[in-house]
Amino acid sequence: MKIRKILAAFVSVVTICSVISVPTFAAQETQIVTDLVSPAYEYAMITKSYLTITSSTAECKSVCEGMTDVTQITVEHTLEKHWGLWIWNEVDGASWTKTVDTRAISLVNTKSGLDSGTYRLKSVFTPTNSSGKSETITVYSDEEMVG
Hints:
By secondary structure, this protein is mainly beta. Helix content is 12%, strand content 53%. The chain has one helix and eight strands.
C-alpha cells in the first residue's frame, strides 16, 4: 500500500511538471565567416615570407608594407631546417638582414647546396613609425622539402 502511494505521488509530480511550460525564445544571430584570417598589426599592413626550393637551391623572399606613418623597416630572414618534433635549426650561412628608410621592403636571397630535409623561412620584420615606435613581427613561410 505504501509503495502505491509513493508511486502515485511520483506520477502526479511528473504529470504536473510536464504540463507546466517554460517560456523560451531564440535570438537571431548573424555570423560572418571569412576564408582568410590575418592578424592585425599596429604598424604593418602586409607581412609575407616565401620559400621556393628547386633541386637543392632555396630562394628566400620576405616582403613587408608598413602603414602610412612608417618611416623605416628592418627585416631579417633566416632559412631553417627541421630537426625533429618542434625543433628548427638555422642553416649555416643562410641569414640576411636589410634596413630601408621607406614604408616598404623586399629582401630576396638564395642558398644552394641544401641537404635533404624540410625547410622553412623565418622572417622577422621591425617597422618603425615617425614617432620612433616600433613592433616586431615574426612570420614563417610554408614548409618546403628537399628530396
